[in-house]
Design brief:
By secondary structure, this protein is of the alpha+beta class. The protein is 43% helix and 20% strand. It folds into 2 domains: 36 residues, no CATH class; 103 residues. The strands form 2 sheets. Strands 1-2-3 form a 3-stranded antiparallel β-sheet, with no helix packed on it. A hairpin with a 5-residue loop joins β4 and β5.
């Protein structure tokens, strides 16, 4: 693993341990040249997933991009980071277990919406407003109504 500070190609693993949900290995590393310390994560990847966008364009699935979009929806919300990590890992496992190499972006968005609905209502509405491209305030009312179980009011 290359040192992010000095670029040295040889770094040493000082400590390895599983994350709380056992979905990754956390490694503490040190660079013998500059003394820099950093952390890496090693995750299982069952298959190379491609995302098929609405436009038909294909792009490699990026777990970090998924995590960033979830974190944007959760910005300034009181949700534990470990719960977010578990949700994103669960979505990735669901996508990999579909058995398909190509996943429609709508499928990913639906899984994120489902996960956020169970995690935080405000983040769910935030994500839905972007994902569903709301054009009218009534659409906000409908999505909020779906949370309280009184749709159409």
């Amino acid at each position: 693993m290359r040192c992010p500070f000095c670029g040295n190609a040889e770094t040493q693993v000082k400590d390895s341990r599983a994350t709380e949900d056992n979905s990754a290995i956390r490694r503490r590393r040190a660079c013998p040249d500059c003394g820099g310390r950093f952390t890496t994560f090693e995750r299982i990847q069952l298959r190379e997933l491609m995302v098929v966008k609405k436009s038909g364009r294909r792009a490699p699935f990026d777990r970090d991009k998924l995590m960033r979009s979830v974190q944007i929806a959760l910005r300034k919300r009181p949700v534990d980071g470990e719960r977010v990590e578990r949700m994103v890992s669960g979505i990735v496992r669901q996508l990999e277990s579909l058995g398909e190499n190509e996943i429609r972006s709508e499928q990913i968005g639906g899984l994120v919406m489902e996960g956020l609905k169970n995690l935080d209502d405000v983040a769910y509405v935030r994500f839905a407003s972007v994902y569903k491209n709301f054009r009218d305030p009534k659409e906000f009312g409908e999505i909020i109504g779906s949370l309280s179980g009184d749709e159409g009011k």
